[in-house]
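This protein record is not my work; I was only asked to verify it. The record follows directly below this note.
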Amino acid sequence: MTSPTASTLLVVREIGADEHRAFVRRQRSVSFLQTPAWGAVKAEWRHESLGWFRGDELVGAGLVLYRQLPKVKRYLAYLPEGPAVDWEAEDLTAWLKPLAAHLRNRGAFGVRMGPPVVTRRWDAATVKAGIADSAVNRLGDLAPTERSHGGARVVAQLRDLGWRPMAVEGGFAAGQPQFVFQVPLAGRTEEQVLAGMNQLWRRNIKKAAKEGVEVTSYDGEAMLPELQTFHDLYVHTAERDHFTPRPSAYFHTMVEALGAEEPDRIRLYTARHEGTLVAATIAIRVGAHAWYAYGASSTEKREVRGSNAVQWQMIRDAIAASADVYDLRGITDTLADDDPHLGLIQFKVGTGGEAVEYVGEWDLPLNRALYAAFDLYMKKRG
């Protein structure tokens, strides 16, 4: 993805799924939420693949999900963790202005997007020290290990262009996570990644192997018979950890849609001890970016450390696939010892990776009255 010059004009228009997939294959990293298959997963939304063209050359792409305003044929256009354009461009106007014009013509009253642009990073040692410090309540209280000037430039440009940062709160407004935890893999061997984990993680991986935990992965049609087994454990996990589980049909749709797009796009992992399922996960990979998407674990037999075993196998497979990063997805930015999510952060910190902050989700109102009505509607729902 290269930046346009003053003498070139970018045009945004709808593209077919095949053209969109071909573009994604040429990129090192594109969110799985920006693949054509994700439109099929979100069947309750109308979806469209968009392309940015410089002449006949496709130089950017994105998946748009359209949510209709109640009783009115006007839509919020949503590009989760996208679009895949040149976010390093000196002037984002050339990329975002034709996007807004196209979506307005499609009946959108507003646009929401989540640029895949990093602003700050904190290594595992920094996060661990923050958790241990009673004076630290949030990641933002800690000096970052790395601060991205490019991320700061994107934030400044979005504000100048009239985009509004979304508050992180419940319901639709929560969107995709602004903070995630990732394990860098580029140029690292299994031994190096394992050595970077904390002592507890290494001990638990070793214990799982000693206890005879068997990890198996499935792809293609082989996943389908195991999906209900995964879902049963996932529902059990939801009841224990107090979150609302997705229905079984959602996972069947996701596995079928993503699996049909690329043979190695999605995999299901199970960890069993003496025949008993103790952990199960779903992993997704697009190019060199691998994600831990969903996980479940049994309350029984936790001492055999099935969750560590299955995570380690997913990391090993990501390394074998030459992935640059293993992404454990969302974390909260809160580090207070009374925060109910602290245990999840501590589990992820043990991998030796880093907390990563993205620029977050941003809105561009195209029709201020309808946008305000939608915003009020969503707040009442939430």
